[in-house]
Amino acid sequence: MKLFRMDSLQNHICICRKCQLDSSNSVFTAKGKKTEFVLKNNNKTVVDKFIVDDCLLVGYNRDEKCDYLFRLKNEKVAYLIECKGSDILKAVSQLNSTLEILKIGLIDYLVKAKIISTKVYSPDIRDRKYLNLKRKLNGNLETKNILLEINI
User: What domain range includes position 95?
Assistant: First the structure.
């Protein structure tokens, strides 16, 4: 397995043509088949949007990677996003795996993970894996149905 270097986020060369680096767009989106995450950038903050699975970490052996990473450089906040059907525990595994790969590159950032799913089953959000990830992120794990909008 390749090691993630500290400068990998800084020197990312987009191969998918969908990543947006150093952008202050007013709206950023992350879409799944039936789900969507919307980041409303009211303060025109500089944001990096990475397509994680198909671009940023495309060469990594691990199968489980989340869909998107939004990095707010000045605020030192990063959002890991997984758009999912109804398998919340699979999403937890993907977020956890991505967090392990990127942890050195995000060491100075407050990491917030978001799962946007078509259905949330209560037993899944009480599962040990879900609760462990939530604890690891100091409570910064949120699960929402269909659409999640955040204002920054």
Answer: 6-151
Separation between Cα atoms, residue 36 and residue 31, nearest integer Å: 4
Domain annotation covers residue 11:
yes
Q: How many domains does the chain have?
A: 1
Q: 114 to each of 12, 67, 110, how far by Cα in Å?
A: 23, 11, 13
pLDDT tens sequence for the chain (152 residues):
455 655 578 888 999 999 999 999 999 999 999 999 999 999 999 999 999 988 999 877 767 899 999 999 899 999 999 999 999 999 999 999 999 999 888 989 999 999 999 988 888 899 999 999 999 999 999 999 999 999 99
Assigned domain for 128 exists: yes
Q: Give the total residue count for the chain.
A: 152
Q: Is the dihedral of CA 15, 114, 102, 64 positive or negative?
A: negative
Give the residue carrying structure tokens 């990473």.
Answer: 69
Asked if residue 1 belongs to a domain, the reply is: no
